[in-house]
Amino acid sequence: MAETVASRLSTTGTANALELRGVSRLFGALAALTDITMTVRPGERRAVLGSNGAGKTTLFNCITGDFGPSAGTIRLFGEDVTAFPPYERIRRGLRRTYQISLLFTGLSVIDNVYLACRGVSRGRFSLMRPRRGDPLLASARDLVDAVHLTHVRDTAVANLAYGQQRQLEIALALAGAPRFILFDEPAAGLSPTERRELVEILTGLPEHIGYMIIEHDMDVALRVADRVTMMHNGRIFKEGLPHEIEDDPEVQELYLGGAHGGH
Ligand SMILES: Nc1ncnc2c1ncn2[C@@H]1O[C@H](COP(=O)(O)OP(=O)(O)OP(=O)(O)O)[C@@H](O)[C@H]1O
């Protein structure tokens, strides 16, 4: 019998933003992810920590659909999206930023954001310049403001500081009313000042937008997350509130090599 949308949806209104059940991913004989079960509530902000090779990026790829899991199910806002291609997940409000920059460096900040807004809107995609009174242009301006780039709105991306380019990537992920965003190491390469700005931007996002963030900078991760999932060797090693994770001796031993003594 053909599966209906209704049968794929669990009770609406109470659905989790994200629900993974028994997700595993093999690359040949290598288990990059093993039996990952986790739940993220709507609007929740979740940090994913773990040393190199822990499986964080593979987890993101399974959630976005860039790779399918070898086993398990992934539900997005109650709907089983395990077999969905990435664009079907984007249509349902999922977004992602990458470690590699995907910006148009020859265009201005506002033009980059405007194109992102056009790209996810239902209208036909075209390389038209924004016109005064275009509602997408107003949305693009709001997004530029949300990532603290108002003062460089008309500057070409190539002339932005590195940290500003990363802020712009967040604006692109915000285009088209997202409900859940995956941020892949947004603080990588940022100066301490830029990191503080990033924390302000992330914590200042509208409350209904949840996110998951891979972040090696523990201070950033713990400040922008409601809960933390710690991964090790493709499995969930610990999950808890930021202070529980920070104070956990096993986490300190494993992740910080016992060097994080600063209380
Ligand atoms: N496309 C692939 N083909 C083969 N092996 C892969 C592939 N992608 C990831 N892996 C392997 O899966 C494991 C998990 O990698 P993953 O990139 O998910 O870890 P990570 O926690 O994101 O690490 P990092 O912090 O270094 O980005 C690693 O052993 C990696 O070599």
UniProtKB/TrEMBL annotation:
The record, for Pfam families, names:
ABC_tran (PF00005)
Q: Which UniProt keywords apply?
A: ATP-binding, Nucleotide-binding, Transport
User: MF terms per GO, please?
Assistant: ATP binding; ATP hydrolysis activity; L-isoleucine transmembrane transporter activity; L-phenylalanine transmembrane transporter activity; L-valine transmembrane transporter activity
Membrane-spanning intervals of the chain:
none
A Gene Ontology cellular-component term: plasma membrane
Biological process terms from the Gene Ontology for this record are: D-alanine transmembrane transport; L-alanine transport; L-isoleucine import across plasma membrane; L-valine import across plasma membrane
Domain named ABC transporter is located at: 18-258
Q: What SMART domains does the database record attribute to this sequence?
A: AAA
By its UniProt entry, which InterPro entries does this protein fall under?
A: AAA+_ATPase, ABC_AA/LPS_Transport, ABC_transporter-like_ATP-bd, P-loop_NTPase
Would the keyword ATP-binding be found if you checked this record's keyword annotation?
yes
Q: What is this protein called?
A: ABC transporter ATP-binding protein
